[in-house]
Every structure is written in structure tokens, then in C-alpha cells.
């Protein structure tokens, strides 16, 4: 019998974690002499109060969906992929190469081509850690972290020495051809006569991200591959007994994970900046870990958690803009949310389980 | 006699205060009532058996007695004095000692260090060690508890490790000794020696509580026996006035066939031929030293032996997944065709396609994914089967249907295919595995410890199904550490010791003593050469004839 009803597990626990994180954040804001209530209203207003705010919130959400799904898929194979950051950066390189060197006449053609490039580069960046883990037992946490640094350095080199247009002082690639411009949601809204989210970066990739959630759900819970990934993640001896090849599954799961992280580049590189710049990922790879944890490693949960972090990102930016709360404190607030929803999950979960058990016992007696 | 009819009051030893008396002990874990209003009276200087199926609440009761759990209600009297046992320290102070099924010894400490661990007299170890050495010597002389005090635990055989656990308890001045399934890991000879020790302790006035599911042991050594069923104490009787059949019936709540009724085997052509099979693991230890045997269609070949003598490796190799990094030689033939021992063709999926089913030794680690639902587990290993799939996707509805049918036919309870495997009892988990493997109708079924941790009712059921498979003309390889199981189920018995086959017996000719010798590495007919016993097994020296 389960310890708690499913709704308590999936909704109540993260909600309480979130409230705890907000309470401590409020104390911190009080301690520096600002009003927590004002901070909260500024954040909510700035992120959700207007279509402009929503446009940014959903843009960040899109990033976090991809990196969250990446962590989630690997997690089901019991692999902790911390390399989303590097894989997403490499995905950006894949996007840039495809868009700069293939003559693509229309965004509808450019999008699938760039997706292939992004996924291939992201997956390739996950392949070496996966191989080392599967064959040599090198711990994937260590190798993927190191590969983040390698990716950053390699991208730096490529941008400065290879992709930088002649005469430019900026370590960034040339702009992608205008034909490959992805429609923004605001433009699509304008197309049907709506004034929604003008000058916001959210674009069609948002729908790709939602499709990715559905596909990942199918993969993990409806295919033989997903079955084998989950089986291996829970018991390697069991997998061997069932004729599942651990090396194969570890490599495939990491390829899928890296590919998903790489796909984030469609949103930020192709959809937003329309050229490859340094540090394009901006920590979204790491946020993906918190998103997957908070989303209970389910695509629907990942979607909701990504939305929350999208709100925190956009709301935090607004906070820095309109209040005298320093930028660093916003990072503190985001970190508290990650800490409570991700790392300290059991702190809330276990007392809750005890409460539910006690309630059930009383209900019986 | 009806269950519950005989209670403690019916017995004569009521004059002196009992060593342990429990009154109305209850304990619930969430919705599960593990112990319900338990009364128990253990007279001083007696050996008291507690018997019951898995999950009957024996271990919970003993954990309460040892201070691990606090009872929800009821009272504990030790030597007539009411006592609250808050933790194991107060249990020890009350003179209660516990020998766990899984020993709690520090592997790289010596016997002496383990004995004084936690009861050192001061900051310096030397005086404590010297004192313990003296006490140990005296205990060894008194009870035949011989162990070299300076040997490290990892060098000792399982039987000796258990003696160290008993010594630890006695060193802490335990008058009441609780032993939880003490013979599970012992050879028959080691078990006999343990019983001699226990009788010696009883003669000195110690009280012993023996928790076991082996009826034979209860009948052999106990004075009184209490039977638990579903958290309740259903009977307490004098051992001399009962029988194994009656106890089994009390445990299960209905009549049980202890011995499998089966017709003589009618073996056909050889299904499995194993020749000169050798295996060296990744640390260079030779685990199998040239194994050869045949199994014919329509026969059950039993492999007896103390666990850890190569049976696990044999099953894994036949199942298609030899240990990582091991090197193999020899040959395996199934229905006359060679099976690869390594490379791409050597995996469990391929072996299943060839017609080998496998009920693994450890259902919780291998046979089932504990977090998966029952229906997901029914497809485990066969998830590529066409009937479970529709194109790219798995046909979950079909798997569910099949699972529900299997649970119905194998009487898996509760009959809820959506429940996670971990929420079933051991016996029902095993039934899921057995249903999955047997209903595939394999030419050869590999079975490891089919009834480990399984209750008597389910054991009977599983045994019946295995015999049915045999009668349908299939070959069965049965590996078990339970001699009773091997002797009642197998048509031929091989005994494994240290990676070799020590000998072959027919069940109706074999005696426990004879098989016990083989299990200890000694062939009673042609005494094995000295070099057959490697250093690690030097301590397996207790033979039935050895004087204590």
C-alpha cells in the first residue's frame, strides 16, 4: 500500500516545499529591510501580470522543459546527468553550424534541420561520459560536470577563432539567415489579430517543448526501450536477468538525455538570439536538475516545475529592475526554491507520510 | 485440537515465574496489525520454539522483546518483573541476548574484539581483551563453543560466526537467548552442533527462544512451541504432544501436504548437457572447477549444497548472464545444440528464446523490479514477446490481461495487477515469478531457492507446479539450500561443494547425514583428497562424528 495518496505525493509535497522556501526568502528580504509583500507582488506582476511578462516566463519555461526532460530521462536509468549545461551549449553549436552552412529557404525546413543538429551535438556530448560510465564505470556525475567545462572552453575557442565574422570584436557567430527566423508567439498572435506579448522571445519552440513532453512520456512508459531504461535504473542485476544489456541502455538513455538538452538551443540560439553567443545557456542546464526533481521525474511534473522556474526567472529579473533588492538576492531566492523542492524533498515528504499514516490509522480505529 | 484452544494456562510449569512472559502485546505498522494481543509464557530453562509463516509477526514480536519496537499495548515480564524495554541496551541489562539471522559482526575484527565491542571496561582495550579471553575459554569448555579468539571474522565459516554471536550474548550475561532462523545458513552437521550447544546451555539453566520455519528443528529440539498466524498466537503446545503435520496445519490454518506427492519420473532424452564447465571470476578465484551433468526431459535434478559453493554462478551461466569479467570454459548443450558461453549470443533474452525459463535465487533483486507493478513484472524478461507489443509501443492492456489471468491461476493475493511488486508478501511475489516462468512452458526451467522466505501454503503450491512441469516432459534444475526441499522434490540429487560436484544420490537412498558430509566437502565413500578443501573452507570441519 502506498504511504500517501498520489495527490499528496505529487502536488502537496512540492507545494509545501515551495511555501517553506518562500517563507525563508521573505525573512531574508525582511532582514535587508525590504518588504516581502512588495517583492512578491512585483514578481507576480512582472512575470504573470501582463502578456509581456508571460512572453518571457514561457520563454524561460521552454528552456527548462528541455533540460528538465534531459535530466529526467537519464534519471530513469539511474544516471545523474549534470551535463545538461554543456550538452545544451553544444546543441547551440549544432544549430549554428546547420543554419550558417546549409542553405535553408524557410523556417519550416530550417526548424527540423536545426533540431537534428541540436540533438546530434547534444547527444554526442553525452556519448563520451555515457561510454565511460557503461564500459569503465567512471561516474557519470564527475564526467558530465567536467564535460560542462570542456564544452564552455571548446565553444569559446570555436566562437573566437572559427565562427566570429571577420572584423567583429564580439565572440559570437554571424547572424543566421533571415529566412530561418522562427515565428515568435507574438507574431503568431498578431497574425490572428491579437496583440499579445510584443517584443518577447517566446517562439514556436514552446510547442516543440510540449510535444517533447508527450514524446518522452510515450518513450518512458509505453515503449520497450523505456521499459528497459526503467528496469535497469531500478535493478542492474534484474536487468541482466531479464536479458537487458546495461551498456546499450546506459548509452541510449544518455544519448536521448543529451539530445533533449541539446534541443534547448532551438529556443535560445535559433529562436531568441538568432546567432550563437558565449554563455547562451545561462545555467538552464543546472535548473533542469531542480525541474526534474521537483517534477517527480514525470513529463507533466517537469512541465509544471519548468513553468514555476520560468516564473522565478522572469519575476526575479523584474525584482532587480523595480526594487532595490540586489540581484544577488534573487539568486538566493531561486536557490532556496531549488534547495527545498529538490534537495530537501524528504524533509517535507517524510513528516507528511507520517501524518497521512496516522490519519489513516485513526480513520480505521 | 482447535487453534487457540491450548493456551499457556493449560501447561503445568506455572509454579515458578517464567523467564519471559508477554501479556496482550499488540503492535501495528500503519494499517498492518503485525502483532495482535499476544500472550506468551516461556518457562525458565526451556527451549521454546516460535513458528509461523513469513509475515506472521514472529520477527516483530522478537524485536519488541529486544527493544527495537515499542509495543502499542501489553506488558512484558522478565523473571516475573514487569519491564519496559526501551532499547537493546535495556534488553541486554535484563539478560536478553539476540542472535540475528544476519550476523552483526565486524568482518575485519578478531573474535575477541567483536565480543567486547560495546562493552569495553575502560578506555584501554588490553584489560578488556584479557578478561574476555578468559571468559571465552571458560565458555568454550562449558558449552563446546570453540572458536579461535584471535581469528578475524572474515576467516571464519558461517557456523563459527554464529558461535561468535552466541558468545557475544553470553559474554553480556544473557540468560535468555533468542535465535532468529539460526540454521538457515548452516550445513546439517553445523546445525547438529548448534543444537548440541543449545542443549548444553539449557542444561545450565539458560532459556532459549528459537524462531524458525523448519518444523523438523522444532520437533527435534524444543520443549514447547508457540504457533503464530497473521499476527496472532494461535497455539502454545508441548512439543512432545504435537506433530509436524499438526503444527503445519496450525501455521497455515488448513491441512498441508509436507511431502510432495509425485509419481516416479519417466526421464526422456537429455535436454541439458553440461560438460567440464569451469568458471574463474574477475578476481581470479575459480568458482566452478569442472562441472558436468545431464538433465533429461521429465526429470527434476536437485543441486544441494551450502550456499556460496558455485550454485549461483552455475545458474547465472545457464541463464545467460555470467558474472562480469569472468572467464568460462567447457560446454553447455540444450536439446543437442551448443549454447555460447560468451559474446553476443550469450544473454538472458537469447536463452529465453531457446526455451530456458529461470526462477532466480533472489526474486527481489533479479526476478522482480520491486517498484514495477505486478503486470509490468509479468512481462519482465519477455517484454519483447509479440503478444505484449503492438508496433512501436507495448500493449499494456494485453500485458495486464495476461497478468490478471496468471494471478488468478496462481492464486496471487491480493489480486491487484496494478499494485507494486514490493507490496506483495514474499510468497505472492514468488508466485508472480513462478507464474511468469512456468506459463512460458520452457524446455528447461532453472530454479534457485524457489521457496526462500515463502510461507508453507505457497511452498506447497509452488512445489506442485514444478512437479506438473516435470510431468509435462520438461527438464528442471532445482538449486536449493533446503535439504528437505531437494529430497522431496528432486528425482536425482547432486551435491556441490567448492565449485565441484561431490557426488550424486537418489533421494530415496540418501540420508541427511550422507548428504551433509558431501555438502561439507567430504565423500564418505572415497574420502576427498586434502587439497580439495581450500583455506577459506578450513573451518567447515564439524562432521557428525566429531565430539563437542
UniProtKB/TrEMBL annotation, chain A:
Main localization (coarse): membrane
Keywords linked to the UniProt accession: Cell membrane, Membrane, Transmembrane, Transmembrane helix
Subcellular localization: Cell membrane
Membrane topology designation: Multi-pass membrane protein
Gene Ontology, cellular component aspect: plasma membrane
TM spans (from-to): 12-32, 52-75, 87-104, 110-128, 140-160, 204-221, 249-270, 276-295, 302-323, 329-352
Acetylation as UniProt keyword: no
InterPro entries the UniProt entry points to: ABC_transp_permease
GO molecular function annotations of the record: transmembrane transporter activity
Name of the protein described by the UniProt record: ABC transporter permease
TrEMBL record, chain B:
Topological type in the membrane: Peripheral membrane protein
ABC transporter domain boundaries: 20-255, 272-523
Location in the cell: Cell membrane
Keyword terms of this UniProt record: ATP-binding, Cell membrane, Membrane, Nucleotide-binding, Repeat, Sugar transport, Translocase, Transport
Coiled-coil regions, chain positions: none
Keyword Nucleotide-binding: yes
PROSITE patterns, per the entry: ABC_TRANSPORTER_1 (PS00211), ABC_TRANSPORTER_2 (PS50893)
Domain of life, source organism: Bacteria
Family statement: Belongs to the ABC transporter superfamily.
Name this protein carries in UniProt: ABC transporter ATP-binding protein
Organism (species): Paracoccus siganidrum
Amino acid at each position: 500500500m502506498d504511504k500517501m495518496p498520489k495527490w499528496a505525493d505529487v502536488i502537496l509535497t512540492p507545494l509545501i516545499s515551495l511555501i517553506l522556501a518562500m517563507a525563508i526568502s521573505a525573512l531574508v528580504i525582511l532582514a535587508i529591510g525590504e518588504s516581502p509583500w512588495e517583492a512578491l507582488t512585483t514578481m507576480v506582476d512582472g512575470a504573470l501580470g501582463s502578456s509581456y511578462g508571460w512572453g518571457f516566463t514561457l520563454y524561460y519555461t521552454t528552456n527548462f522543459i528541455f533540460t528538465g526532460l534531459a535530466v529526467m530521462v537519464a534519471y530513469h536509468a539511474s544516471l545523474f546527468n549534470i551535463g545538461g549545461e554543456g550538452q545544451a551549449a553544444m546543441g547551440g553549436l549544432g544549430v549554428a553550424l546547420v543554419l550558417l552552412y546549409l542553405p535553408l529557404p524557410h523556417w519550416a525546413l530550417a526548424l527540423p534541420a536545426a533540431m537534428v543538429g541540436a540533438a546530434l551535438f547534444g547527444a554526442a556530448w553525452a556519448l563520451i561520459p555515457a561510454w565511460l560510465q557503461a564500459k569503465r564505470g567512471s561516474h557519470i556525475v564527475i564526467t558530465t560536470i567536467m564535460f560542462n567545462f570542456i564544452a564552455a572552453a571548446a565553444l569559446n575557442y570555436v566562437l573566437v577563432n572559427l565562427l566570429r565574422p571577420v572584423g567583429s570584436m564580439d565572440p559570437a557567430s554571424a547572424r543566421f539567415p533571415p529566412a530561418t527566423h522562427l515565428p515568435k508567439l507574438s507574431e503568431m498572435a498578431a497574425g490572428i489579430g491579437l496583440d499579445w506579448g510584443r517584443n518577447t522571445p517566446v517562439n514556436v519552440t514552446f510547442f516543440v517543448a510540449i510535444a517533447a513532453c508527450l514524446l518522452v512520456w510515450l518513450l518512458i512508459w509505453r515503449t520497450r526501450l523505456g521499459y528497459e531504461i526503467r528496469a535497469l535504473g531500478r535493478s542492474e542485476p534484474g536487468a541482466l536477468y531479464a536479458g537487458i544489456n546495461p551498456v546499450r541502455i546506459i548509452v541510449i538513455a544518455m544519448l536521448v538525455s543529451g539530445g533533449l538538452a541539446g534541443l534547448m538551443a532551438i529556443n535560445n540560439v535559433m529562436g531568441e538570439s538568432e546567432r550563437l553567443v558565449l554563455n547562451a545557456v545561462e545555467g538552464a542546464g543546472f535548473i533542469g536538475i531542480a525541474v526534474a526533481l521537483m517534477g517527480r521525474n514525470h513529463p507533466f511534473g517537469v512541465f509544471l516545475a519548468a513553468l514555476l522556474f520560468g516564473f522565478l526567472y522572469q519575476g526575479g529579473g523584474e525584482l532587480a529592475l523595480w526594487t532595490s533588492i540586489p540581484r544577488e538576492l534573487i539568486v538566493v531566492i531561486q536557490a532556496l526554491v531549488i534547495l527545498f523542492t529538490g534537495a530537501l524533498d524528504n524533509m517535507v515528504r517524510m513528516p507528511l507520510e507520517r501524518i497521512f499514516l496516522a490519519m489513516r490509522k485513526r480513520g480505521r480505529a | 485440537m482447535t487453534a487457540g484452544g491450548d493456551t499457556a494456562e493449560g501447561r503445568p510449569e506455572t509454579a515458578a515465574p517464567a523467564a519471559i512472559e508477554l501479556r496482550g502485546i499488540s503492535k501495528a505498522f500503519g494499517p498492518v496489525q503485525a502483532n495482535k494481543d499476544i500472550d506468551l509464557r516461556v518457562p525458565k530453562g526451556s527451549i521454546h520454539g516460535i513458528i509461523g509463516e513469513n509475515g506472521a509477526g514472529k520477527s516483530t514480536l522478537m524485536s519488541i522483546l529486544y527493544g527495537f519496537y515499542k509495543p502499542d499495548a501489553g506488558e512484558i515480564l522478565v523473571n516475573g518483573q514487569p519491564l519496559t524495554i526501551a532499547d537493546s541496551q535495556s534488553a541486554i541489562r535484563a539478560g536478553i541476548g539476540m542472535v540475528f539471522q544476519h550476523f552483526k559482526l565486524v568482518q575485519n575484527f578478531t573474535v575477541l574484539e567483536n565480543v567486547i565491542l560495546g562493552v569495553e571496561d575502560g578506555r584501554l582495550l588490553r584489560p578488556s581483551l584479557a578478561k574476555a579471553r578468559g571468559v571465552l575459554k571458560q565458555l568454550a569448555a562449558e558449552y563446546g563453543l570453540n572458536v579461535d579468539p584471535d581469528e578475524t571474522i572474515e576467516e571464519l565459516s558461517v557456523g563459527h560466526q554464529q558461535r561468535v554471536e552466541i558468545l557475544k550474548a553470553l559474554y553480556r550475561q544473557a540468560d535468555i537467548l533468542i535465535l532468529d532462523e539460526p540454521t538457515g545458513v548452516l550445513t546439517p552437521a553445523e546445525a547438529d552442533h548448534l543444537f548440541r550447544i543449545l542443549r548444553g546451555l539449557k542444561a545450565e539453566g539458560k532459556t532459549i527462544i528459537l524462531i524458525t520455519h523448519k518444523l523438523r528443528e522444532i520437533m527435534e529440539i524444543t520443549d514447547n512451541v508457540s504457533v503464530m498466524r497473521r499476527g496472532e498466537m494461535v497455539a502454545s503446545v508441548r512439543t512432545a504432544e504435537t506433530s509436524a503435520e499438526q503444527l503445519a496445519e496450525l501455521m497455515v490454518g488448513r491441512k498441508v501436504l509436507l511431502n510432495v506427492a509425485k509419481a516416479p519420473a519417466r526421464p526422456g532424452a537429455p535436454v541439458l548437457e553440461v560438460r567440464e564447465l569451469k568458471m574463474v571470476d574477475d578476481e581470479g578465484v575459480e568458482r566452478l572447477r569442472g562441472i558436468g551433468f545431464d538433465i533429461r526431459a521429465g526429470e527434476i535434478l536437485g543441486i544441494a549444497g551450502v550456499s556460496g559453493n558455485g550454485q549461483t554462478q552455475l545458474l547465472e551461466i545457464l541463464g545467460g548472464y555470467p558474472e562480469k569479467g569472468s572467464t568460462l570454459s567447457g560446454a553447455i548443450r540444450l536439446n543437442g545444440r551448443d549454447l555460447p558461453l560468451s559474446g553476443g549470443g550469450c544473454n538472458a533474452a537469447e536463452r529465453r528464446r531457446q526455451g530456458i525459463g529461470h526462477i532466480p535465487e533472489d526474486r527481489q533483486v533479479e526476478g522482480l523490479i520491486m517498484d514495477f507493478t505486478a503486470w509490468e513484472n509479468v512481462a519482465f524478461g519477455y517484454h519483447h514477446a509479440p503478444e505484449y507489443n503492438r508496433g512501436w509501443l507495448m500493449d499494456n492492456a494485453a500485458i495486464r490481461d495476461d497478468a490478471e489471468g496468471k494471478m488468478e491461476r496462481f492464486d496471487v493475493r491480493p489480486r491487484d495487477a496494478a499494485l507494486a511488486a514490493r507490496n506483495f508478501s514474499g510468497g505472492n511475489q514468488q508466485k508472480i515469478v513462478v507464474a511468469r516462468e512456468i506459463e512460458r512452458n520452457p524446455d528447461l526451467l532453472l530454479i534457485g531457492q524457489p521457496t526462500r522466505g515463502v510461507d508453507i501454503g505457497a511452498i506447497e503450491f509452488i512445489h506442485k507446479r514444478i512437479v506438473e512441469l516435470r510431468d509435462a516432459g520438461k527438464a528442471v534444475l532445482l538449486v536449493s539450500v533446503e535439504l528437505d526441499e531437494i529430497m522431496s522434490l528432486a528425482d536425482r540429487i547432486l551435491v556441490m561443494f567448492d565449485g565441484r560436484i561431490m557426488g550424486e544420490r537418489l533421494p530415496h537412498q540418501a540420508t541427511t547425514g550422507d548428504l551433509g558430509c558431501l555438502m561439507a566437502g567430504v565423500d564418505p565413500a572415497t574420502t576427498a583428497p586434502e587439497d580439495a578443501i581450500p583455506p577459506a573452507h578450513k573451518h567447515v570441519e564439524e562432521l557428525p562424528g566429531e565430539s563437542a
